[in-house]
Design a protein that fits this description.
Oligomer: single chain
CATH topology: Rossmann fold
Shape: globular
CATH architecture: 3-Layer(aba) Sandwich
Radius of gyration: 24 Å
Largest sheet: 8 strands, mixed
Number of strands: 10
Distance between the termini: 85 Å
CATH superfamily: Alpha/Beta hydrolase fold, catalytic domain
Strand order of the largest sheet: 1-2-4-3-7-8-9-10
Number of domains: 1
Structural class: alpha/beta
Length: 312
Amino acid sequence: MNFIYIRSAFWVLYLIFLLTVVLLVSGCATGQNTDISSELTNDEKIDLTTGKGQFLFTQWPGPAIPVWTYIPARKNIRDLPIVIVMHGTGRDADRYRDEWAAQAEENGLIIIAPEFSKKQFPKAENYNLGGIFKGRDRIYQAEDSWGFSAIEPLFSRVVDLLGSQQKEYTLYGHSAGSQFVHRFLFYKPDARVRRYIAANAGWYTMPDFTESFPYGLKGAKVSAENLKAALQKDVVILLGDQDIDQSGSSLRRTVEAMRQGVHRFERGHGFFNQAQKKAREFNVPFRWRLGIVRGAGHSNAQMAAVAAKLVY
């Protein structure tokens, strides 16, 4: 009796298996199967059109990066400025793209917002700090593996996709994205950035060779020549005058960070002033500007409304 039961159960399971195979094959043949890769279009197939879009950027040595886009409804897309928008600590590039959309339409801007996910770029070490160093021993990484190294090939890819005439781009970042932008400035002196806009960073790598990295350039492997070049580039440090919260959970309060100021607004001024002082010390032209957004707190949407006017 036990043998008969086992044999019967076997045939039941076998029939279920055959039925499953038939259904799967049938689904494929009729086009009813779900292809999860279609949720994000591969960058070899993407055709950027007006409005909101997205694609998967793979043309660099690092992990594939989802990219959220906005193309305004204009006839002269090839001539429009390109803005690469770096998101904050929430890694929500789609929200940042959405908050720039109205500005893109009004001002005629192409918005490209890469998403550096927490899975692929964990912690501040791999996003805010660009992945320059890894681990407690801070092992210096090969340059092609840095998060910073994704931006230039991303710009080239977008230019190709759009048939754009643009030779340079604006690099904007808010909060953690602002940290990415100002450190990118130090580490990528040959980048094709027309203007850097760093908005409301929580803390900074100060242009100071006596302060240890990541709070300064001591041990950062940034040369004096790189810093001189950075001080002469077109940079806007954009600060909301109401970004003065001293107790928020995302505000770093280490001893080194607190030396920079008690809140983001104060720290931004300190960063700008230190850069200006360093330019005088190096005797090089200082091209940075300090921009204050009245009534703005720690809000990308509020900062984007002003930053969009600075792109041209």
